[in-house]
User: Fold this.
Amino acid sequence: MNYYELLGIKTTATEEEIRKAYKAQMKKWHPDINKDSEAVSMSMKINEAKDVLLDDVKRKEYDKYLNEKDNITYKRYSGVKAESYSDTVYESQMVTKWEYFKEYLSSKNIKLFNKIVSTILVSLETVLCFMLKWLIIILSFICFILSDAIIYLFYYALPIIGLLLLVVIYKLVVGVSTSNFVELRGLIVCIGIYLSSYLFIFIGKRLISQNVFNFLYNKLDIYLFKKAVFYK
Assistant:
C-alpha cells in the first residue's frame, strides 16, 4: 500500500485533499487517540506520506518511483527481461496491504466480529485475484499457442491451398456455375482461419498488457482489499 493508498486518496489529489485525508487518518491513528501498539508506527508512516506528497519535488520523485516499480513488476509478470534498478528510500517507508492487515487485526479499537469478517473477505479477494491473474496468463498462453499452430499448419498446407486457389480461378475463368462452388467457400474458410492467427496474437498481447496488469495488481486487488477491511 503506497502513500496515496495509505491516505485513501487518488494519485491526482490536490494539496487540500491531501491535508484533509491526512487529518482524517491522524484522528484514527494518532497515539494520543489510538492506544494500539501499532499506532505510533502508523502515525509515522502517515506523516511521511503527507511530507512527501505536499512537497512538489518529492512527490514527482515518488510518482516516478511508483511508475518504475510497476514497470519492473510488470516485466517480471509478463516474462519481459527487466532492467536493473536500485531501491530508493521509499521502499522501507511504504506499507504493503499485508502489513496494513496485520496492524488492522492487532488493533484494539476494531471489534472481533469485524476482524473475523475481514479475514474471510480478504482471503476470498486474494484467492479471486490470484485465480483471475492465472486465468489471464493461461488464456494469453493459449492464444499464442493457437496462433503458432495455425501458422505452422498453413506452412505445410500451402501447396494444397495453392491448388485450391487454381481450381477457383479456373472455374471463374471458364464460367462454371457457382451455385455449388464448394472450392470458393473452402478457400474463404482457409483465409479466415489464417487471419485468425493474427487475431489470437493481438488478443494474447492485450491480455498481458500493462493496462490489464495495472488494473489487476494496482486497482482491483487494492480496491477489494479496502472493501474487505472497511477502509474509508
